[in-house]
Amino acid sequence: MTDAIHIVCPACDAVNRLAPARLADNPVCGKCAAPLFSGRPLDVDAARFNKHVARNDIPVLVDFWAEWCGPCKMMAPAYAQAASRLEPRVRLLKVDTERAQQLSSQFGIRSIPTLALFRGGREVARQPGAMDTGNIVAWVQSKL
Is 12 labeled as catalytic in the residue annotation? Predict the structure, then answer.
């Protein structure tokens, strides 16, 4: 399996090696047997964020949001629907900027919601403001 990619388990954070052709085969974690893709965003803290962004070989889309933010709450269902349309090609994460203030500062998050797309551990695109499902999916696809 020389062309294997790494996928971080959303349940136990174990790093799994997987042939790219198997992404659509509903793969499960080799450690905990949980599905590697659930079709919904994963809420993460700073440690989990760092592992998922650094170790996933697929792009990672992050929604920086806060509980008190009206536009964030309005976009949440659209972001969840985007996850079902983008996985397994893209992992979707949610970062609560109130609980992960260091991440917000590190990435210079000035307004929320803000979407940031990471590839190979590096930010490759950013989009502030709420969007609907179709626009989220189209934006991600245009950046890949």
Answer: no
